[in-house]
Amino acid sequence: MRPLAEAQAAVLDAVETLPVQSATLREARGLVLAEDVVASHDVPPFANSAMDGYAVRAEDVVAAPTSLRVLEDIPAGSVPTRSVQPATAIKIMTGAPLPAGADAVVKVEDTDAGSAIVEIREAAPVGTAVRLAGGDIAAGTTVLTAGTRLGAAHLGVLASVGVAFPKVTRRPTVAIMSTGDEVVPPETEVLELGKIRDTNRPTLQAALEDFGAVVVDYGIVPDDAEALNRTLGQASRNADVVVTSGGVSMGEYDLVKQELAALGTVEFWKVAMQPAKPFAFGSLGGTPLFGLPGNPVSVFVAFEQFLRPALLHMMGSTALFRSRVIGVADEDFATDPAKSVFVRAAVARDGDRLLVTKSGGQQSNVLTALALADAFAVVPVGVGTISAGDTVELELFRAPETRSREEALNA
Ligand code: AMP
Ligand code: MG
Prior knowledge:
The protein is α/β, with parallel strands linked by helices. It has four domains: 4-18 and 172-314, 3-Layer(aba) Sandwich (Molybdenum Cofactor Biosythetic Enzyme, Chain A); 20-43 and 135-169, Molybdopterin biosynthesis moea protein, domain 2 (Alpha-Beta Complex), CATH 3.90.105.10; 48-124, Molybdopterin biosynthesis moeA protein, domain 3 (Beta Complex), CATH 2.170.190; 324-395, MoeA, C-terminal, domain IV (Beta-clip, Beta Barrel), CATH 2.40.340. It contains nine helices and 27 strands. The protein is elongated. The protein binds adenosine monophosphate and magnesium ion. Residues 178, 180, 182-183, 196, 198-200, 245-249, 251, 254, 293-296 line the site of adenosine monophosphate.
């Protein structure tokens, strides 16, 4: 059995970063920036008003209330044609360029909103309601660095500096297949004795697409060496990564390992972890193969611990593993000290602590406990028992909406 960290390192050593291409901002969502982005101009590009109001000379309004002559009106998008002179003001809208001569903006609420003459009711020290050029980003600043995975705010930053076609590492194409003579499509209406519905492909497909991968679905492959050999060969030629489920444990019909060895190389196939101990990793003519176990919870754990970091590495990300936070066990957890154990856990807030309980049965076929889980409570090798009150590391894998309207708004 490989220690988990060794197995993860071997996987990362075996996968390569994909080629770089230009993408539109829409296409770039979830992809990883492949170059540092330096702002070629200030953001905001010009000094402008943070309020609807009147651009003034601060010294003219020290003695408010006072009246000033209004020279003109500048809506957003327009350019001032006059400069503010002593005892004058220019009406200005949020985002419009600050006229020369002005050094403060008095918000409209602090005036009588006059057109020819305005009464200023409050003083406005120098800089009031003025957004300076470069106040967010100064020209020449590196705003985002290579390796950043682009989310909503990053895409906005790129747009603000005019980088509409960023260089990103391309999306990985991932071939998926389920294996097993007992596995039938989820839409099967009547289950015959001995058959089960394929839960792994929908889970993997969703996890991979959430992640930004392009999924190619090779369906369900029977426990037949020839069929498996053919499908694995085809998948490895058409995808960057091949992911199978089932057929990697000790049984007579566990053929994935065997066919991987026939077509390519097996790097390892047992990891000291729970769940997902039977996990085969290898190469099919240069295409990495992730032979996930058959049990649905193991599939998800293996996805999280092996595929996610590997795909992030392929996508050019520098950060590969989920952040961990500290929780407090609210019950005892008895785990196998010989393995890295990923307890499916429900996390609840208690003041400033995160309380951790098992979200259900911990057998690797109990997918409902995974559906109810917020996190893995990670119990390292050598620990075994966690007692109520002990701290435990949490890998939060979803942050769902948990507060109802009443809870959130009537507090
Ligand atoms: P295996 O490693 O192929 O023996 O599979 C281990 C367990 O996972 C068995 O109980 C299988 O029936 C089950 N299993 C395998 N593939 C799937 C699948 N696609 N969906 C649901 N359960 C599966
Ligand atoms: Mg099987």
